[in-house]
Amino acid sequence: MNTVDQESVSATLTVAVPAARVFAVLADPTTHAAIDGTGWVSEAADRAPLSDVGQVFRMDMYHPDHPDGHYRTANQVQVLDPPHAIGWLTGTEREDGGLELGGWLWRYDLTPLGPAGTEVTLTYDWSAVPRFRREYIRFPPFGPEHLINSLRHLAELAAPVSRTGAGVGRVPGGRP
């Protein structure tokens, strides 16, 4: 299911994985390239799990329409409520080490559906993007199908490796 309003887009998928496992995959920046439905995330520059509101983690990116092609984002955790919600604002890091956040938020809301199921909603919200940025960046910069693709990738990563296995998840950062 996809939902689009004037300043956000979201998608929801039910997965046969406990919420704690889904949250653990989302809190691991090394999995974000494999989750990404746009193909823009290349690799985690910071590998520490997301554990605190205000924490900054960087991602190496590639987009053919970006002025530099390859670039790095600096993301600041805004929401951290294990295993129910996690979200971050995306921006860049200035030369002085300060952050310049763009105003767009990636947020995952997890609703446990018993011991082995979770409803996951991914929302991309650009309501805080300043007017001057909207003059040169179109929002959203991707179609809504990219969100459902991300949720499908997340489900694959969070799923047990096999039905007969010990429930060990797939290798972080890699697609099955």
Task: Describe the fold and architecture.
With 176 residues, this protein is of the alpha+beta class. It has helices at residues 19-26, 32-35, 131-134, 145-158, and strands at 2-4, 8-15, 41-44, 56-62, 70-81, 85-93, 99-112, 118-125. It has four helices and eight strands; from the N terminus they run ββααββββββαα. Strands 1-2-8-7-6-5-4-3 form an eight-stranded antiparallel beta sheet. The chain is globular.
Which SSEs are present, and which pair or pack?
Blueprint: E1 2-4, E2 8-15, H1 19-26, H2 32-35, E3 41-44, E4 56-62, E5 70-81, E6 85-93, E7 99-112, E8 118-125, H3 131-134, H4 145-158
Antiparallel strand pairs: 1-2, 2-8, 3-4, 4-5, 5-6, 6-7, 7-8
Helix pairs in contact: 1-4
